[in-house]
Write a structure and sequence with these properties.
Blueprint: E1 2-10, H1 17-34, E2 38-48, H2 54-70, E3 74-82, E4 87-96, E5 112-115, H3 121-129, H4 135-146, H5 150-159, E6 163-166, H6 171-183, E7 186-190, H7 200-205, H8 211-219, E8 224-226, H9 232-239, E9 247-251, H10 253-265, E10 272-278, E11 284-287
Parallel strand pairs: 2-3, 7-11, 8-11
Antiparallel strand pairs: 1-4, 2-4, 5-9, 5-10, 6-9, 7-10
Helix pairs in contact: 1-2, 3-4, 5-10, 8-9
Length: about 290
């Protein structure tokens, strides 16, 4: 048995404190799932203004606790500090059988790329802070962010993936690029196959995106070859900084149909084949 550990925390990205706690917990636990591990125990990390209502504090911790319970994780304690801006997250410990961990470094040419959540949470939460996003769009983003990657990870370890990463702050392009660099391969993406949260396109047309997304787009210039008919809005969506995104798996083509079938049986709501791994090293080609 081996131990795997991760840590993540951030300021509120939604107004509801309970939802914030649940999203932060799901996001922190996700790295264990991306390795193919089983999360078992967590410690809370909380920064909180002393003059803010304790009811808000309790709601954040309740959201985190109940999401951890859903994942089968024991919250064994934690640490709080006084800070002007609230921040919450978890340090999570998991277990894995040595040699069965799934890393970013073994993607192979011919592999199929499978994504298990739609993208767009960075743009939508930014629009929510500005009072622009409608309630239905915000609710869809919250559902995506607070959903655990447990079922997808279980299937991934059962069927076998060559490589995996979860999609968070560096966006789909950034995290795929990290996998390609670790594996010394390239990839093609088909834009029309990439799932996006309903309501995202309208917000993109209004020019709404977090600063992290624009930084991701800027840093991708030497990594991505965009087809001529790819719009600026589409480029932004693929570089959008995500919170608690899905798993991006690199799966042997011979296993892809079985992987998709088992993900469907496990109740994973989004299963998209978005591209493939190619031999050309460390380059992403995006086609419409």
């Amino acid at each position: 048995m081996a131990i795997v550990q991760t840590l993540d925390f951030f300021p509120p990205i939604v107004d509801n404190p309970y939802d914030f706690g649940a999203i932060a917990a799901a996001n922190a636990i996700s790295d264990i799932y991306a390795m193919g591990g089983t999360p078992i125990i967590a410690l809370n990390i909380l920064a909180f203004p002393s003059d803010l209502s304790r009811n808000i504090l309790g709601s954040i911790l309740k959201g985190g606790s109940e999401k951890a319970h859903e994942a089968g994780v024991i919250v064994a304690g934690g640490h709080t500090i006084d800070d002007e801006e609230p921040k919450y997250g978890m340090a999570v410990t998991g277990i894995i059988e040595p040699g069965k961990q799934i890393t970013k470094s073994k993607a192979k040419p011919g592999d199929v790329l499978i994504l298990t959540k739609p993208i767009g949470t960075g743009v939508i939460t930014t629009a929510a802070k500005q009072g622009i996003a409608n309630k239905a769009t915000i609710a869809r983003a919250i559902k995506v962010m607070s959903s655990l990657n447990h079922a997808a990870s279980h299937v991934m370890t059962k069927i076998g993936a060559n490589a995996c990463t979860d999609i968070t702050g560096y966006g789909l392009i950034g995290h795929l690029g990290s996998m390609l660099q670790a594996s010394s391969v390239g990839a093609t993406l088909k834009l029309s196959n990439i799932p996006m949260i309903k309501g995202l396109s309208g917000l993109l047309k209004q020019g709404i995106a977090p600063q992290g997304t624009y930084r991701n787009l800027l840093s991708s210039q030497d990594l991505v070859s965009w087809a001529n008919d790819i719009s600026e809005e589409s480029k932004i969506s693929l570089c959008d900084a995500q919170t608690s995104g899905g798993l991006l798996m690199s799966v042997s083509a011979s296993k892809s149909n079985e992987m998709v079938s088992e993900l469907q049986k496990a109740g994973v709501s989004t299963i998209a084949i978005i591209g493939e791994i190619i031999e050309e090293p460390i380059r992403i080609k995006v086609m419409k």
